[in-house]
Structures are given as structure tokens and as C-alpha cells.
Amino acid sequence: MKKFDKERALLAVAGPVIALAVAFVLSAIVLIASGKNPVEPFALMFEQLGFSDIQVLIINQASMYYIAALAVAIGFRMNLFNIGVDGQYQLGAMMAAVVGAHAALPAFLQVPLLLLTAVLTGAFWAGIAGVLKVTRGVSEVVATIMLNAIATSLIVYMWKPDVFGVKIGNNNTTGEMHESGWIPGIAMGEAGEIYGLVVLAVLLGIGYWVTLNRTRFGFDLRASGASESAAAASGVSPKRMVLTAMLLSGAIAGLAGLPILLGDTHTYSLNFPTGIGFLGIGIALLGRNSPVGIAFAALLWAWLDKASPELDFHGYDKEIAVIMQGLIVLSVVVSYEAVREWGLRRQQRKVGAELAAGHVLGANNTTKEVAGR
């Protein structure tokens, strides 16, 4: 049993390691092709890890990436491709900002209200795609892509001054939220503050693991993702699980923008970060839908984001980090398939060896019986 666990752990780690190695090599080839030093950019970015202010920025950014990737991972567990995480998290943050600007409750009520607003908004937006899939057979990929576009248009509408918008210079905002909804950060001296909702990201990761591995719902979710027909035979409704997974994925996605909203900006404006939902797809893939793996992948993505601006001061384009992120996603797909094929061949060889050994043992026993007679 221990040997099996070691082999399974090795296969789980091999995919990400190969993907990262291939991505680094391909990025170096791109640098060489452009006449640049293939090593110095990575050395410069690694140096940034030693600065405390960069460390704080990485942790803060990783908290949002982590929540978004968890939302994607829930869909992956059901073989659902929730591309709408970006729209769900932006709309969730927008609605939380609007409520936070117009409601002035005590902090012990205001903060849960904002969290609940984001959760319900994200769940509702993802639920539309879920309902369309289970009732009309509409692909969740198509539905969520279209819902992303609708979410963007809806946000633009809500920014209008006669709706919820507050114009500040050339910036569209929802107005500043009441302080009772602000969540204080963890002071790190001159390095700045770590968002208080980093704790939420940790709790969501723990809850994700417990739900999937220690509850009946988690078992049904994984079983439905592995084989809908087999799950249905055991009494699980595939349609119900699809809708539930989409609702849960959207609910978590709605929280992805709250660490920066409640911990820093305190308003939803044109400067609010976008694209986090799409990055969550690559992070979930690299982390193999594991809460620990996703955490490392989120930190890696955040490091590439926050360390790359230093490249501009040394004659390199910071876009090398974006290129590397794209190469990681491509490498992940290829490496995981290669590792899966290798694992299957290894299992087939072991089964063949065991069958051959059993055949030889049976032949020896037969020979002894004949000799005994």
C-alpha cells in the first residue's frame, strides 16, 4: 500500500515539475531568439523574492488567484469547464461594493453581509449556465463565455451616475464603502499589509479538501465527474450534481475579488483587477485541482506578476512573465498526458509481470504434484 501511495505521489508531482521545466526552457529559447540573455531575467526575478514588500504583494495577489482557482477546480471535478469565473468574480465584487457603499451596519453584520452578497451573486450568475446545461443541454463553456460578456455590460450599466456609479475624475467607481465593511490587514512594517481575507483563502482551501475527501457530497461529486452513468446507477442524479457544482463554483468565484476590495480599494472602479478568473484556469490545471498544489501554483503566478516589473529596469520586457505563464499552461496539458500514459504503461507492465509470475508458480505446483504421484 505504501509503495502504491509513493508511486501515485510521484505521478502527481511529475506533471507540474515537467511542465515548469519545459516552460523555463521554452522561455529561455524565446529570449535567445530575441538576442537576450536566457538566464538573467529569471535571476532578476528570483532576487525579488528577497524583498519583503514584494513578498507581501505576492501573498496578496496569490490569495485572489487561489480563490478563483478553487472555483475552477470544483467545476473540473465534475468535468465542467467554468470559464465564467471571471465574470462571476467581477460581478460579485461589484455588487458587494454597491451594498457596502449604501448599507451602514455594524462591522459584525456589515462584513457577513458583503460576503453573502458576493457569494449569492457569483452563485446566481453561474447558476444560469448550470440551469441551461441541465434543462437544455447548453454547453457550460458557451454559456459562461456569453455570461462573461453580459456581466461586463451589466457592470458598465451599473457604473452610470443615475444607477450606482460615482464619477471621480475620469474614473468610474461605486463610491467608497462604509468603514464598517473594511477588513484590516496584517501589518508587516514598511513592507505594507497582508490582506485580512488571506485567512478566508486558507479556510476555503481547507473546506474544499474536507468537502471532497471527507463528505458524501464530495464522493458523489467525484464519482459523477468520473462516470455519470456509474454515479446514476448508485442513486446519484447527474443533473442535480451538475447544477450544484456550478452553483458552488460560482459562489466561491464571487469571493475572489473581496481580499483587495475589502482590504485595499474599498470601491469597485476601472482600476479593479480583471482576468483573475482566466488565470485561475491555468493555476487549477498546474495545481492538479489539489488545494496544496493550487496554493503553490497561485504563489508562482503571483511571483511572475509582481517580480516581472523589475525586468524593465534592466533592458528586458516584463512580458516574458506573461509568455511563461502561457507556456506553463501549454506544458501542463502535454506533460500531464505524457505522465498519464507513462503511468498506464507502468501499470500494464506490473500486471503482466504478476500474471506471468502466477503462471510460473502454477506450473511449478503442477509439476510437483505430478512428481509426487
What does this structure look like?
The protein is mainly α and 373 residues long. Helices cover 73% and strands 3% of the residues. It has a two-stranded antiparallel sheet. Strand 1 and strand 2 (171-173) form a beta hairpin. Helix 4 packs antiparallel against helix 5 (107-136). The radius of gyration is 25 Å and the shape is globular.
Name its key features.
373 residues; mainly alpha; two-stranded antiparallel ribbon; 14 helices; globular
Give the structure's gist in a few sentences.
By secondary structure, the protein is mostly helical. The chain is built from 14 helices and four strands. Strand 3 (186-187) and strand 4 form a beta hairpin.
Series of secondary-structure elements, N-terminal to C-terminal = HHHHHHEEEEHHHHHHHH
Largest sheet: 2 strands, antiparallel
Strand composition percent: under 5%
Class based on secondary structure composition and strand pairing = mainly alpha
Instruction: Trace the largest sheet across and list its strands.
Output: 1-2
Helix content: over 70%
Number of strand elements: 4
Q: Count of helical segments?
A: 14
Mean pLDDT, all residues: 89
Cα shape: globular
Distance between the termini: 40 Å
Give Rg in angstroms.
25 Å
**Poorly predicted runs:** none
